[in-house]
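Batch job 17 of 40 flagged for manual review because the log was empty.
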Amino acid sequence: MSILNSILFGALQGLLEFLPVSSFGHILVLQKIFGLTDSMGTLFPAFLHLGTAFSLIVYYKKDVGKILVESFEMLMELLGNLVFYIHNKRHMDQMRYHRIISSAYRRFVCLIMLSLVPTALLGFSARNLVQLAVHSSMAPGICMLLNGVFLIIVDLSGCGGKKSPRHIGFHSALWMGICQGLSVFPGISRCGFTVGAGMFCGYSRKMAVKVSYLMSIPAVFGAFFCEIYYAGAGGAMPVAWSSCIAGTVGAFIAGFIFCSTILKFLKTTKLRIFAGYCFLAGAVILIGSIRGI
């Protein structure tokens, strides 16, 4: 893939990543249409997602910084509690332990971490199925139709509430994590499924969008390093590094430009509009695959 094509795909990723229409599915379909499918498989899309993850880090820099600080402090307090436990056991003492989850924001951080567990389990267990879907001409269309069905159900159900971070429960973190794990399939929108799951759990659309994208950052980095590992485990990596880096840079720049505007648009626009687009795109992809286009 040429550098120019990589940059253009990166720009497309930066535009579509923040909409509930599956950037992964679009990129795979367009690669096949223009004959740009190569041996990198899911590695090139992983680089593109890395670019938009960096743009999210910039957009949510205050939250990301606070999450890192709180995570480090909780780790130190856990180690301190371990020291207290050993001391109490040895000396029959009653030293008081630190309260780890001492604020609503720490609860928020813990639940983001918890959401990664089902995401990782689904990502690992479904890897072979994902590889089959990536090389299938029909799978992105089918998944895009399913994505549209989910979005229309969320929209017509009128779900959503006023829950804040202090009200986030473990069940909602697990559901959002499961939905994020399902988005490894091309055509299933990570944004659409996790935002919808958040709204079903009682979050407002604004809160669900924020939780969705903050929890996506560590998931994207984890998926990226897994793809690097799998590519290397296969022997010599057939990787065009210049194309991957160009795509990453393109995705970051486009994501940085579009992130704020599109996220505001996503927080207010009815999901049925995106569902309608998914139905149309999914139908076109299926018809094209049947006719061998």
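Reviewer: the log was empty due to a logging misconfiguration, but the result itself is present. The chain has a mean pLDDT of 87. Unflagging and moving on to job 18.
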